[in-house]
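Example record

The entry below shows one chain as it appears in the dataset: sequence first, then structure tokens.
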Amino acid sequence: MKKPKKIIPAKIRSYRRRGIPISGKELIRQILEKKERDLSFTVLKRDENGYCDLTKYKDDYEALNKYLREQKPDKEHPILVLNYSKMSGLKADGIYLPFLLASYANFEFSILTRANFSGANMLLTDFEKSNLEQANLENAHLLFTYFYSAKLTEANLRNANLFGSNLACAVLSNGDVQGAKFSATNLLDADLRGVRNLESAIGLRSALLIDTLLDMSQKAYIQKIIERKPKIYEYISVVR
């Protein structure tokens, strides 16, 4: 399929260019030693393979996660602010960032397995081809977020707001979507096989489900709730 166009307003592109590139080591230092919370416009330096690996600084990374776990963030007091930041290629397995504020940020091609983003606010954030396997996105605000070809296997999306998000070609297999909001979401070619609590998800009637991979039981459920012409189901792929 043709890759969906990524819409990034010129103003946002210019904001991302404002930041001075910093290393992963310096990012950890700013949070741990300087106690910085607002790191908007941050631009991460990447290695020759295109990654910024925080986990290679083992002791510092463990100290960072310990520090973050000691915080008590909420909607009014985000754990960190990364608005307009360019964090592409970030490697941060198990990073603890509930109530992160990272709108218009770029995390494309990142490895964020087992990350905790519960309650995060990530409007128009870019996770193209990122690995978010087993990530916790419960109650996260993910409006118009770009998850093209992202891996969300076994991710917790309970009560997440995915309004207008692009999940084309994303893998959500065996994840939990109880109460998740899928209104106007692009699920073209997405893999929903084994997804739990699909029947309690909200807004699937208005989602784009062309060529979506579904189990037989999921297809039967989708056919009941979507009020479209019967021929639309010819395009829904089903694993037999």
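Notes for this example: DSSP finds four helices and four strands in the chain. The CA atoms of residues 88 and 157 lie 22 Å apart.
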